[in-house]
């Protein structure tokens, strides 16, 4: 599992560790790891470090210090290193002295050296930077990209807010980021994540001093494999879980088919469908148990997924209310989210999982969509807290947040957090922008509903579903467009890939 910690946590850990080390030791550790990573990249690029042209963009803080000490190491290995100080007079003095002593020089003409550089190190700002790139940095940052050099961000691409991934104005777009001690949330959440390129973590010994509960966690194959349900000898379809899907309408029967297609591949033993799309569902999936009355009359169901393509007619509103009255886990998506009352969700005793995209999240929070997209972490946390529900926020970065324990009964999901505190938000590492295709969210709802019915806690069902869904899209796509139906069809392959 990858974890990310907040700037405050990093600074506290740094303080404790520094008290036990000689002055400057931590920065030198960071710089040594950075130089090793850069040397590896130069060898891949040119076959050598000797003679490589390296340019350092250096701001006024310790981020620039890291770049300078790493530059000194590369200069000692024969690289031609030039520094572009963006805050002349405030450049890290020890780092600059080390670089000059190793044979590096201050660039006379930044644009000339950037035009021919092989590698540019972005040491403008790290965890201390705020408010995006300043105007004086913009021309050199643009020249760095324009010159065709590989751009490596030190700790964090400058211009990205470390705690949230927000970008105000412009930020460095890196090919790779070498980060120290722990990942920062801004490296894992868009738009910051997208600026960071390939991520590399350098261990500087902060681990024992970081809080055991991180801000964010990103599951990997082994973590997801442990969560997925496996039928045992004594299983029958009821023990494996029955998921109820309430989706589709006369206008959107396809949503019903897609939600059921996800549900059939999520590990539940049976899928019940309730709604006006029964005929379309049966034509495609004869194994579905179709019911025409209200959901509460459909028979045994261990979890519901309600909302995709439902429309907002009176049947839809009544079906959502009926499902929310059931004492089993309920996933609410799409149109279902427009028919929700905050109080109804808060008062539920069984878990509730809401799965909005940014537009739906914005409507639930009463803010603009842009605000949610710029600050996904704050938005998903706010929604979870307000509704007392688990929330999966879809989009370029999918996040899953749980409310603080005690704020929603029934939705706790075995976390290592302190009593009362919300567990770490989960960030989904799989997926592809090709997933932004009509109906793919319907597949996700059915899939996550199925995992809920199979007995996973809401947070685990949501994060395992997002993981499989994103992986399935990648496997189905391999660089080409995919349809929602392809995503569903590749789910068994994604499942095998995870558990295999
Ligand atoms: N903590 C650790 O464990 C370790 C930390 N290490 C390293 O230290 C880094 C943190 O260093 P830091 O605290 O000096 O802050 P940093 O990111 O260099 O930037 C702050 C400076 O930039 C300025 N500034 C602010 N905003 C700006 C903007 N938009 N555009 C331009 N300038 C802006 C601001 O000054 P201002 O101009 O606002 O007065 C201030 O001087 C960290 O990321 C890692 O690389 C490692 O060496 C070892 C372990
Ligand atoms: N830019 C993107 N990058 C990666 N995944 C995306 C992107 N945009 C959307 N997605 C994913 O695609 C799916 C779209 O779901 P949704 O918005 O509900 O669409 P629909 O209602 O058409 O099914 C979600 O899983 C979402 O996370
Ligand atoms: K940086």
Structural class of the helix and strand makeup?
Answer: alpha/beta
Question: Which stretches are low in confidence, meaning pLDDT under 50 for 5 or more residues running?
Answer: 408-417
Can you tell me the overall shape? elongated
Continuous helix count: 22
CATH architecture of the largest domain: 3-Layer(aba) Sandwich
**Total domain units:** 2
Largest sheet: 11 strands, mixed
Bound molecules: ligand NPW, adenosine-5'-diphosphate, potassium ion
Key terms for this structure?
UDP-N-acetylmuramoyl-L-alanine:D-glutamate ligase, 18 strands, binds adenosine-5'-diphosphate, binds ligand NPW, binds potassium ion, eleven-stranded mixed β-sheet, 500 residues, alpha/beta, elongated, Rossmann fold, 22 helices, 2 domains, seven-stranded parallel β-sheet
């Amino acid at each position: 599992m990858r974890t990310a910690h907040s700037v405050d946590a990093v600074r506290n850990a740094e303080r404790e560790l520094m008290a036990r080390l000689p002055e400057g030791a931590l920065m030198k550790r960071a710089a040594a790891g950075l130089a090793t990573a850069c040397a590896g990249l130069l060898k891949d690029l040119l076959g050598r470090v000797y003679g490589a042209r390296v340019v350092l963009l250096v701001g006024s803080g310790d981020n620039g210090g890291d770049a300078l000490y790493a530059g000194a190491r590369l200069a000692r290995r024969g690289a031609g290193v030039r520094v572009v100080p963006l805050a002349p007079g405030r450049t890290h003095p020890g780092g600059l002295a080390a670089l000059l002593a190793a044979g590096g020089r201050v660039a006379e003409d930044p644009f000339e050296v950037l035009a021919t550089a092989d590698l540019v190190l972005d040491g403008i700002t790290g965890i201390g930077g705020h408010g995006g790139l300043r105007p004086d940095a913009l021309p050199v940052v643009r020249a760095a990209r324009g010159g065709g050099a590989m751009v490596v961000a030190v700790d964090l691409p400058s211009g990205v807010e470390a705690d949230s991934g927000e970008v105000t104005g412009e930020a460095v777009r890196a090919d790779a980021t070498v980060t120290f001690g722990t990942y920062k949330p801004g490296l894992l959440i868009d738009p910051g994540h997208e600026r960071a390129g390939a991520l590399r973590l350098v261990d500087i010994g902060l681990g024992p001093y970081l809080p055991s509960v991180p801000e964010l966690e990103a599951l990997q194959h082994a973590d997801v494999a442990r969560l997925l349900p496996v039928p045992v000898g004594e299983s029958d379809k009821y023990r494996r879980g029955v998921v109820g899907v309430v989706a589709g309408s006369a206008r959107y029967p396809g949503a019903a088919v897609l939600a059921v297609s996800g549900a059939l591949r999520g590990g539940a033993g049976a899928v019940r469908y309730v709604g006006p799309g029964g005929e379309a569902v049966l034509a495609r999936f004869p194994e579905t148990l179709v019911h025409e009355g209200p959901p509460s009359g459909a028979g045994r169901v261990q979890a519901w997924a309600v909302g995709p393509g439902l429309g907002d007619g009176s049947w839809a509103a009544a079906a959502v209310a009926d499902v929310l009255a059931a004492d089993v886990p309920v996933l609410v998506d799409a149109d279902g989210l427009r028919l929700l009352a905050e109080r109804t969700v808060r008062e539920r005793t069984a878990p509730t999982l809401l799965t909005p995209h940014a537009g739906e999240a914005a409507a639930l929070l009463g803010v603009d969509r842009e605000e949610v997209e710029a600050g996904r972490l704050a938005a998903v946390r706010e929604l979870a807290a307000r509704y007392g529900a688990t929330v999966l926020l879809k989009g370029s970065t999918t996040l899953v947040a749980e409310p603080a324990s005690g704020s929603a009964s029934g939705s706790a999901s075995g976390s290592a957090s302190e009593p009362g505190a919300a567990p770490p938000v989960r960030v989904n590492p799989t997926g592809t922008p090709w997933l932004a295709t009509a109906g793919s969210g319907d597949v996700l709802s059915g899939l996550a509903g199925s995992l809920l019915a199979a007995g996973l806690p809401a947070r685990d069902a949501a994060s395992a579903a997002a993981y499989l869904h994103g992986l399935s899209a990648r496997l189905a796509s391999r660089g080409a467009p995919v349809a929602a139906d392809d995503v569903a069809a590749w789910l068994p392959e994604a499942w095998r890939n995870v558990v295999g």
